[in-house]
Automatic annotation (TrEMBL):
Domain of life according to the entry: Bacteria
SMART domains listed in its UniProt record: AAA (SM00382)
GO terms, molecular function: ATP binding
Family: Belongs to the ABC transporter superfamily.
Residue intervals of the ABC transporter domain: 9-243
InterPro entries attached to this UniProt entry: AAA+_ATPase, ABC_ATPase_HisP-typ, ABC_transporter-like_ATP-bd, ABC_transporter-like_CS, MetN_ABC_transporter-like, P-loop_NTPase
Oxidoreductase among keywords: no
Taxonomy of the source species: Bacteria, Pseudomonadati, Pseudomonadota, Alphaproteobacteria, Rhodobacterales
Keywords of this entry: ATP-binding, Nucleotide-binding, Transport
Name used for this protein in its record: Amino acid ABC transporter ATP-binding protein
């Protein structure tokens, strides 16, 4: 699991408000290619907002966000370019219910990337094999378990050949027996060198996979460290309190 010197995401002095509510405060974060970052923190601390800002599902009001060398501003061309490089997987899989698994995976490649259908289907099958559900390709999302649906969502993202993957609590809506199959898929992606930012409460995953854990509270990055130090030797009182509540 190599981390390169190349910068994948650079966030400088970034602030965001929802109306009067200052949700992200002076965020500075540099992510190098190949990094696997887990973002932890209490509910409402701004974790989802932060990762949604990285593909402009939310807009920041000051500071800079640069993704793969492209600064996120109101320029729609740049936003589209960034979105085509950044995959996102949500807590609630957000699959299209009226499309088959295969169609979910080929829709964007065919219509956004203009990939020929046959080629898009071959790529989709490759990624459905990778997430270990090629036999579900002809089914509809409603016929699949939650864990299978989330693996389709991951495969669908991979079909766009992203350089960066963002995960927002991908296992929080799953029954316990399905969490592992999704985490295993994420571990495999990490091992292949994908740059990943994962909001998750799965601290076992953080310990096994992350090269860095970031702790957020009240819109700020309070502390960050490599996992062993983060869990064994937390510095701030807020981190200690958080860890005492979840571990
Ligand atoms: P987390 O993912 O850490 O639970 P969020 O980023 O979802 O935190 O939310 C951070 C804060 O911003 C919370 O107080 C939440 O209520 C508020 N918030 C989130 N989305 C919106 C929105 N669209 N409008 C107003 N407030 C929001
Ligand atoms: Mg959230």
């Amino acid at each position: 699991m190599q981390v390169s010197d190349e910068v994948a995401i650079d966030i400088r002095n970034m602030n965001k408000w929802y109306g009067n509510f200052h949700v992200l405060r002076d965020i500075d974060l540099t992510v190098h290619r190949g990094e696997r970052i887990v973002i932890a923190g209490p509910s409402g601390s701004g974790k989802s907002t932060l990762i949604r800002c990285i593909n402009r599902l939310e807009e920041h009001q000051s500071g800079h966000i640069v993704v793969d060398g492209i600064e996120l501003t109101n320029d729609i061309k740049n936003i589209d370019k960034v979105r085509s490089e950044v995959g996102m997987v949500f807590q609630h899989f957000n699959l299209f219910p009226h499309l088959t698994v295969l169609e979910n995976c080929t829709l964007a490649p065919i219509w956004v990337r203009k990939v020929p259908r046959k080629q898009a289907e071959a790529t989709a099958m490759k990624f459905l094999e990778k997430v270990k559900i090629p036999e579900q390709a002809g089914k509809y999302p409603g016929q699949l378990s939650g864990g299978q649906q989330q693996r389709v969502a991951i495969a669908r993202s991979l079909c766009m050949q992203p350089k960066i993957m963002l995960f927002d609590e991908p296992t929080s809506a799953l029954d316990p027996e399905m969490i592992k199959e999704v985490l295993d898929t994420m571990i495999e992606l990490a091992e292949e060198g994908m740059t990943m930012l994962c909001v998750t409460h799965e601290m076992g995953f953080a310990q096994a996979v992350a090269n860095r854990v970031i702790f957020m509270d009240q819109g700020q990055i309070v502390e960050q460290n490599e996992p062993r130090e983060f869990f064994n030797n937390p510095k701030s009182e807020r981190t200690k309190l958080f860890l005492s509540q979840i571990l």
